[in-house]
Write a structure and sequence with these properties.
The complex is a heterodimer of chains A (339) and B (240). Chain A has 339 residues and is of the alpha/beta class. Chain A contains eleven helices and ten strands. Chain A starts with a strand and ends in a 27-residue tail after the last helix. Chain B is built from six helices and ten strands. In chain B, helix 3 crosses helix 5. Chain B is globular, with a radius of gyration of 19 Å. Classes of the chains: A alpha/beta (339), B alpha/beta (240). The structure holds zinc ion (ZN). Zinc ion binds next to helix 4 of chain A.
């Protein structure tokens, strides 16, 4: 692992991001979010995202270089998210990164987005060293990995259907909280009783480590239907109970996995790591087992390019110009990370 | 001055390297789904075979469409990335204008030409131009997405058996039924059906340069749906 400067680029979903990192230090971390662009559609629209990435990515890269006070000449390698994600969005970042690396005579590192989320905990100031169990939960992903080596996280479990953040947004919509309703649901839940309604928790099969949110969502749908207009008197309780059914299995399985694998720490990543209830549940359960809880800053949990720069340091670089024929890939590789 | 020109609006991307406006090498890739994804490797191969290093490139010209959205974005992102890293200008040219100039070169002088690019969904991106005989184009019909019938309607009055419109491009297969004595399809083996990056580069030098931003000419589907829903809601409110 060398400590050269890395320029990292991330365009897999609805954030256009670029960052300069060196080792564990972040020199700049620029994110141009498109979230508001997608609000009228009630979800991320791939074509809208791709159009916006193309119009933004070069300026975001310039800004990342400027804030780090470096030029492209100072950069040792370029890194880019090449999977998984929205293909049209990924292709903008990959084409841009390939062209920049090629023209600047640099190696290129093709980074798995999920590997990036896991490696966010490696960056300062959290600077977590293995071994630990990682939970990455967001609107697009929910997965548990045991990390003995940042270069090769081992997948323990993932969602069978909706991602945790997606489940929260869908629940919020059922409660009439709009899109994206995650933050509104969390605010509402603060005043509610998490035990008021017994929703099935989001687990799939005993003994396994996969997650499933289809049942929780359906249970909420029926409850809302049965309550009719009474729903509005019980909104806080509904929000709290639903949130509990989504978050508790995440916290339980994270801590259970750490205990089972005998590791001293757990890490949170992804946008759902910002959820206060999840943090509380993880902190409580981890404390009972003397586990360290590592939670990177919010801007390193949501999609960003600094984490891609981190993962790039655990992914082989491809020498100039061997990467020119390589491509973006929409799907995750079966069973883990493409490292 | 070395110019690198590329167009990825169609499934047959075209690339060219020029020195002071004179082509050193050019290639058009055989049509394939997702051909745009090969463009970076093809650029390197073309430069290498021309004995040009990428850092010797002094300007880039890129086709901005209309055409397949993903292909366009790959070509434009590649051009902008090269330009950003090399610190050189990147100029856009409407791909459909380069296609038009290719037809002009093959059609009788003074006629109107109508380039058609396959837009999928039973539509084409089409336009019509009159050559000014000097390498320039006068717009007769602005580029737009249209059905075959819609295009014929637009060409009605422009095209007559005495002065037919010459049509070419990879969208032609959607128009074979409407070809009349007033609308002449260029022969199948004519080079006029393909966008030539050499022509694209020349177009940039002769007043055809424009901002490097895709000519989508179509809203994202989700936007169309949203607008339709908003209109229906508004109509519902008005009735109520
Ligand atoms: Zn993510």
């Amino acid at each position: 692992m060398s400590a050269g400067l890395i320029l990292a680029i991330e365009t897999s979903c609805d954030e256009t991001a670029a960052s300069v990192v060196v080792g564990r230090a972040i020199r700049s971390n620029v994110v141009a979010t498109q979230a508001e662009l997608h609000t009228p559609y009630g979800g991320v629209v791939p074509e809208v995202a791709a159009r916006h990435h193309l119009g933004t990515v070069n300026a975001v890269i310039d800004e990342a270089l400027a804030r780090a006070d470096v030029t492209l000449d100072d950069i040792e390698r370029i890194a880019v998210t090449h999977r998984p994600g929205l293909i049209g969005a990924l292709l903008v970042g990959v084409a841009t990164a390939k062209a920049i690396a090629y023209a600047a005579d640099k190696p290129l590192v093709m980074v798995d987005h999920l590997h990036g989320h896991i490696c966010a905990a490696w960056l300062e100031p959290v600077a977590l060293d293995p071994p630990f169990v990682s939970l990455v939960a967001s609107g697009g992903h929910t997965r548990l990995d045991v990390v003995h080596d940042y270069a090769a996280p081992r997948l323990l479990g993932q969602t069978r259907d909706d991602a945790a953040g997606e489940a929260v947004d869908k629940g919020a919509r059922l409660l009439g909280l709009g899109y994206p309703g995650g933050p509104a649901l969390e605010r509402l839940a603060v005043d509610g009783d998490p035990a008021a309604f017994a929703f099935p928790v989001g687990l799939a099969g005993r003994g396994q480590r996969d997650f499933s949110y289809a049942g929780v969502k359906t249970a909420l749908l029926y409850t809302v239907r049965d309550l009719g207009d009474d729903m509005y008197m019980r909104l806080a309780d509904l929000a709290a109970s639903y949130q509990e059914a989504v978050m508790r299995p995440l916290a339980d399985r994270l801590v259970d996995a750490a205990v089972e694998h005998g590791v001293p720490a757990v890490a949170l990543g992804g946008g759902v790591a910002a959820n206060g209830r999840l943090r509380t549940l993880v902190a409580e359960r981890a404390a009972a087992h003397d586990l360290r809880v590592a939670v990177p800053a919010r801007e390193l949990c949501t999609d960003n390019a600094a984490m891609i720069g981190a993962a790039a340091q655990f992914t082989p670089a491809i020498p100039w110009p061997d990467y020119l024929a390589l491509d973006a890939i929409a799907t995750a590789p079966p069973g883990g990370i493409a490292a | 001055m070395i110019t690198l020109a590329l167009d990825t609006a169609t499934p047959s991307p075209s690339l060219a390297v020029l020195r002071d406006g004179v082509a050193l090498a050019a290639r058009t890739l055989s049509p394939a789904q997702g051909a745009g994804r090969r463009v970076a490797q093809e650029i390197h191969d073309l430069l290498t075979s021309s004995g040009i290093r990428v850092r010797d490139v002094g300007e880039i010209v890129v086709g901005v469409g209309p055409g397949g959205f993903t292909g366009l974005r790959i070509g434009i992102a590649t051009a902008l990335g090269l330009g950003q890293a090399l610190g050189i200008p990147v100029r856009g040219v409407a791909s459909i204008e380069a296609l038009a100039l290719g037809i002009v070169a093959c059609a009788p002088a003074g006629t109107i030409v109508a380039p058609v690019i396959d837009a999928k969904r039973q539509e084409v991106f089409a336009a019509a131009y009159r050559s000014d005989g000097d390498g320039g184009l006068q717009t007769v019909i602005e580029p737009h997405a249209t059905s075959a019938a819609g295009l014929v309607e637009r060409l009605d009055g422009v095209a007559t058996p005495a002065s037919p419109v010459y049509m070419a491009g990879d969208g032609l297969h959607r128009l074979m039924e409407v070809v009349t004595s007033a609308i002449v399809a260029m022969p199948e083996d004519s080079p006029a059906h393909h966008i030539d990056a050499v022509v694209l580069a020349r177009r940039a030098r002769t007043g055809g340069a424009r901002p490097v931003s895709p000519l989508y000419l179509r809203l994202p589907d989700a936007e169309v749906t949203r607008i339709r829903a908003a209109r229906q809601a508004a109509a519902g409110t008005a009735r109520a």
